[in-house]
Amino acid sequence: NAGxxxxxxxxVLKTGQSMTLLCAQDxxxxxxxxxxxDPGMGLRxxxxxxxxxxxxxxxxxxxxxxxxxxxxxxxxxxxxxxxxQTSVYFCASSYGLAEFSYEQYFGPGTRLTVT
Amino acid sequence: DAKTTQPPSMDCAEGxxxxxxxxxxxxxxxxxxxxxxxxxxxxxxxxxxxxKNNETNEMASLIITEDRKSSTLILPHATLRxxxxxxxxxxxxxxxxxxxxxxxxxxxxxx
Lengths: 115, 111
Prior knowledge:
The structure holds two protein chains of two kinds.
Chain A: E1 4-7, E2 10-13, E3 19-25, E4 31-37, E5 43-51, E6 54-57, E7 65-67, E8 73-78, E9 87-94, E10 105-106, E11 110-114
Parallel strand pairs in A: 2-11
Antiparallel strand pairs in A: 1-3, 3-8, 4-5, 4-9, 5-6, 7-8, 9-10, 9-11
Chain B: E1 9-13, E2 18-23, E3 31-38, E4 45-50, E5 55-56, E6 61-64, E7 70-75, E8 84-92, E9 105-110
Parallel strand pairs in B: 1-9
Antiparallel strand pairs in B: 2-7, 3-4, 3-8, 5-6, 6-7, 8-9
């Protein structure tokens, strides 16, 4: 049981390049999330999904797109990277049912630098 | 979701209890108090949550005041591995389960 995994762990992009971050979970969770964390700050929600085929905007969605084609995977895309998107990106998942939904499980993070 | 206020940093001696306070004076009746922590560079980790009763698990205890306007997370015997940023989050349980993270409290456990 790997929990929540993220690919890649590190990436350096040039301004204007695109990339996709992959999040995978093997806990059969309904809900999945993408957060970003800037230095000295708490996490901020980018997008989230409450089930396969559904996505919704979080607090800071601009410049990002997401897809949830399979229940176990949640992809975060940057179409045209900007230096302001330099950050650590965390994926998380949770059951989504009231009784079991209090805990979010987080991945190890992806460190992205945009030059 | 209600806003929370935490001290930016605290120190604790190894082996002693660490008491981390959180103010949430605007909490509503159906909002829970959650605690997560983030050890350096890692993803946040769930610790405990509660509504109005005190709660205890293998990691920590959560004490919520009777008026629910504040709470305290207690690590009974802090170790060096407990050095982390601790986040107090208040939110309604259910729905999209979104968490709103503040800046948290940086707890340093000293040998």
